[in-house]
Amino acid sequence: MSAGKVAQARRKNMKRPPSYYKKLRRELKTKGRTAPKQSDNTKKSTASLLKKWNRFCSEIDESPESFIKTANAEDFKTFLQWTLDRYQRIRASESLNNYWRVLNMHILDQSGRELDHSIRRDVTNYKKVLVDEYQLRRLPKKRGVSSVDDLYHILFYHWVYDTTVYRDEQQRSYVATGILMASYFGCRPVSMFDTRIKFEDDADARKPADHPTVAGHPEDHSEDLSDQDDMDWDDEQATLVKPDSDLDHDGDTSACSNDDSDGDTDSDSDSGTDDGVDAGLDDTGSLLWRHITFIIAPHCDPGEPNVLFAKVTITHTKGEDNCPREKIFIVEREDNPLLCLLDHLLSLALHDDVFAAKSLRTVSNIFRAEIPSGRKCLQLKIKRSALDIPVFREPGRAADGYRTSPTKPLRSKTWLRYLTQLGRHSGLENSFTQYCARRGLVNAINNKAPSSVRDQIFDYQLNIVR
């Protein structure tokens, strides 16, 4: 039973007396305002601003906590100019706007004080004066956009000419797969990789147990210990998990499911178990194998190989804490193997040994799997132990050298380093990032698809390209 169903069952059986709500009302009144649920990125931005505010208050002999509740327009204007004087790396007007926005948000969240319109307008006008006085950059820096030719060029260079030595050659496959996925889906790094940041906050009960920026340590996988107990793993890098063999089944039909089946408790409607793409403890914040479903269908011509396609569900999007949404993409075969995302995903799945059936260990067995008559398609089951394994994983160091970690998701910083290095070596004019592929897809879709379709793909709102 999924976590959502358990919560619903507990709610139905829960009946509280009136005295409970009377007591709860008194307790909530005592606690006061409820703190907002903020992401770690927002917390880090707020903490950085408060350090500047505390230093500013110490220099003008004011208490930071009380002064922020009583400060007026002249105080905030002085603080912004003090920030520009103290931190000369601030060269863009957008940075100044962001400081003011975060300060407004913190004042409202912590003290419940909403600044008057006259104060906000006065400070906004003074910001324009500071922008002119300090010659801050008004326009954003030039952003790279990749076209179809750029995509082909960089992938061809990656596979043919690139001499970069990766810590583990599996990372080379990750780079090609990630570039294709970003180019076809137009997604941000948060949809595929671990973008969490390190934020030390003892009062934050929602802090992930394993921050990607924290120096790694041997994780406690008491149920996943490898048979290689004598291996000496490095503290900063890799962990081992036992290969799953419990759910291996003989026969092709047991490894598949179809949409017309009535209720096999060992099969998934979405990912090979009864959990679904949104079940499980997703502590990685990245793309997992439960988010990818492989399906085979019989070819229209008898004797021909099966038709394979994949369904990729994107569950992590920008602003998912406030507006969670889910996007589904269907991936089909492409004649050019260099541009075929389906082949790349299938190769990663076979390498990670994620399919439950022992018979599905080769490409030929998948394309020649027998589909029972009367079924339109079959879904390839994923091992239950593989559902929560990230598709892209971080390289780690073990006793016998570097290898890809079995559990640790690939960090967005590592991914950015791969792309910028590849773009530089391949001779691209501008720095190559995942957003270059995203902007290229935006240009390809503009004026060719309805604005509603474009906005849904790229997470735009109100038909405005931002």
TrEMBL record:
Residues 243-252 have a biased composition (Basic and acidic residues). It holds the Pfam family DUF3435. Residues 225-237, 259-278 have a biased composition (Acidic residues). Residues 36-46 have a biased composition (Polar residues). Residues 22-34 have a biased composition (Basic residues). InterPro entries: DUF3435. Residues 1-46, 204-278 are annotated as: Disordered. This is Core-binding (CB) domain-containing protein.
